[in-house]
């Protein structure tokens, strides 16, 4: 059963208001599962995990479901495949990391008591079973860091339950520490660098042209605040369209791009898929 028109309209107005304030928004269906905003990925056709809570190996030009679909673009929110989503949406969600925020999701009274004893006071939003504590600053997301405590920031979404009360404070180290795991080396998956054409001679006149291009690509990925998947894919596509056929790219250059993407929370698999999709699109 769809919801009354006034409720649907309220969800849409909430999403547009969040987007206008720089908070990437998205609709949620019953059960807190996200919608896709791309017809090709309707009903999880591209292979995301159950309930589409995690993006799958989508080959669309832009990520179109799960947290990666949250957007500040009012045209995307108002139109396109999301039109039907607002008809069936049960609530609005947002991508905290995309807005430079972290949500400490406290699921019960014991978790709330722990937070009051161990974390600095900040803006608080009541939830069905507990509270969301909102901090300024993004970090890695992690579920079950303590009993009844989840951290929602990058590569995650949270329900929008209102602005809450209190003054938002800076993300404390005590929260960042909860998500820290043993460090692992960033090791991009090796693959064959495209062979040079034109007799093996690079068509670019100076190495500085390539270096400047790689540096700009790293910067573009690093500065992405939302739609990280799409930014990584478009950046890889741009690099390959300029340098992919002349043989000047080396494994070192490619590793730099992968490292920049992984620093923004992308997995090696997502990097590899984005690179492969870009090569396929360019016929490399």
Q: How does this structure look, described?
A:
It is a single chain. With 284 residues, the protein is an alpha+beta fold. 37% of the residues lie in helices and 13% in strands. It contains nine helices and nine strands. It has helices at 5-20, 74-78, 82-88, 109-118, 173-178, 207-222, 228-243, 251-263, 268-282; strands at 25-28, 91-94, 101-106, 123-126, 131-136, 142-146, 149-152, 158-159, 169-170. Strands 3, 4, 5, 6, 7 and 9 form a six-stranded mixed sheet that branches. A three-stranded antiparallel sheet has the order 1-2-8. Strand 6 and strand 7 form a beta hairpin. Helix 7 packs across helix 9. The chain is globular.
Task: Give a short summary of the structure.
The chain is built from nine helices and nine strands. The chain has 284 residues and is α+β, with helices and mostly antiparallel strands. Mean pLDDT is 77; it is low at 1-5, 48-53 and 182-200.
Strand content: 5-15%
- How would a textbook summarize the main sheet? 6 strands, mixed
Poorly predicted spans: 1-5, 48-53, 182-200
Which radius of gyration do the C-alpha atoms yield? Answer: 21 Å
Number of strands: 9
Shape label: globular
Helicity, as a percent range:
25-40%
Cα-to-Cα separation, first versus last residue = 48 Å
Please state the average pLDDT score: 77
- Helix/strand-derived category reads alpha+beta
**N-to-C SSE series?**
HEHHEEHEEEEEEHHHHH
> How many distinct helices?
9
Q: Tags for this entry?
A:
globular, alpha+beta, disordered N terminus, 13% strand, single chain, 6-stranded mixed sheet, 9 helices, 37% helix, 284 residues, 3-stranded antiparallel sheet
């Amino acid at each position: 059963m769809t919801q009354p028109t006034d409720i649907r309209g309220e969800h849409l107005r909430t999403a547009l208001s969040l987007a206008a304030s720089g908070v990437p928004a998205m609709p949620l269906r019953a059960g807190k599962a996200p919608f896709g905003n791309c017809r090709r990925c309707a009903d999880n056709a591209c292979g995301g995990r159950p309930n589409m809570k995690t993006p799958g190996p989508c080959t669309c030009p832009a990520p179109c479901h799960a947290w990666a679909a949250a957007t500040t673009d009012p045209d995307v929110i108002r139109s396109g495949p999301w039109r039907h989503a607002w008809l069936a949406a049960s609530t609005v969600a947002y991508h905290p990391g995309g807005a430079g925020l972290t949500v400490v999701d406290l699921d019960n009274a014991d978790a709330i008591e722990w937070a009051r004893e161990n974390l600095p006071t900040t803006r608080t939003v009541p939830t069905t079973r507990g509270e969301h504590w909102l901090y300024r600053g993004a970090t890695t997301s992690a579920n079950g860091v303590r009993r009844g405590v989840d951290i929602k920031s990058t590569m995650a979404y949270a329900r929008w339950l209102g602005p809450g009360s209190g003054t938002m404070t800076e993300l404390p180290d005590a929260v960042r520490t909860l998500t820290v795991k043993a460090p692992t080396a960033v090791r991009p998956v090796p693959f064959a660098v495209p062979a040079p054409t034109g007799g093996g001679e690079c068509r670019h006149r100076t190495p500085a042209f390539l270096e400047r291009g790689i540096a700009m690509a790293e910067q573009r990925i690093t500065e992405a605040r939302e739609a990280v998947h799409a930014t990584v894919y478009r950046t890889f596509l741009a690099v390959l369209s300029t340098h992919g056929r002349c043989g000047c790219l080396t494994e070192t250059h490619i590793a730099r791009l992968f490292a920049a993407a992984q620093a923004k929370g992308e997995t090696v698999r997502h990097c590899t898929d984005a690179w492969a999709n870009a090569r396929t699109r360019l016929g490399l």
